[in-house]
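INFO  loader      accepted 1 record
INFO  loader      residues=373
INFO  predictor   begin
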Amino acid sequence: MQFIFHTPHAWRGIWQRPHHLAVEFARRGHEVAWFESRYLRWLMNRPREFLRARTETPAPGLSVRPVALVNGERLPFIRAHNKYWLAHALNSVPAEHPRVLWLYNPHEAHLANSVAHDILIYDIMDEYQGFPWSPRTIAEEESELLSRADWVFAGTGALYDAKRPQAEGKIECILSGVDVELFAKFVVPPSGGDPEFERFRKHFKHVAGYAGMIDLRIDQELILAASKALPEWGFVLIGPVREAVSALQTLPNVLFTGAKPYDALPAYYHQFDAALLPFIENPLTRHINPTKMLEYAAAGVPIVARALPDVMRFYSDGAWLYTTADEFIAGLREIETGKTAEKIAASKTWIADRTWSAIADQMLNRLANLSTR
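INFO  predictor   done
INFO  writer      dumping tokens
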């Protein structure tokens, strides 16, 4: 099969579900063309990314193809230009096999009408209506995509429940996976250690850490309260910063490391005394199933996590869950006692049969059934 992926996620960014699936499909001999939208203002502010905005082949059978678009989509003529150019780019791939159009962003539902395909898949990871920057039309666009799709994969239980009424009979919940082998081992990356983190680590009796996008989902008030209540703990936040965090940057026991390569994350996790999911609860986070929970579990680290719906549904037995700052702090204090073996053992059961290879096979089996209809 020939997969045409369109995703708002950059290939050279935080690795998520689309990245793993694209690699797994290519490993099985399928052709995968990954298209990512790159807006001119964004590119001009990042000269290196601008120079890299060309087709590359990170793996056999997998090509990454950035598409340069114009900012200002609230203007109808710019939106029309971007829609045309994006569809033109996706149609530029020669059709040599049955084509699967694989979409993530409901704002680009128009591609279902303008890009040649044999099967249309909507793989939903987030509740896009929860993003403040989503256009006002996002609900209607997603409704169209749910209606047009031949099949919908929901990456969380909450999303499955929310979207099933619109996609009844052609939707299934397939949770995301984890690279167990990568995260189970403490391997110093080829680039060496992180001197800043190592110095920070030595200053505190315990270290708690989070890795991922540092954006509107992070509960800064929670971290502020915990840093003041637990001065013997250092709090490490790994990832690109997309929100103002000045209130936290001045704290002596909070460290922002910036983005780190995906394969470097296990080296950090194995030095955490606790791994965190310090999210606020809002319409966006209520629909997620954080893959971080699986990564932390594979690394064997005690976990303190916000009691979000999917977290309670799938991971409550192996983590300290909280809804308030006091409960968050209490979880860290319990971890201080060292009585963590039971919850760590429970968390290991989450990752059974949750490899990306197994998930890709499950999806490909579904596609095989669709193609024989």
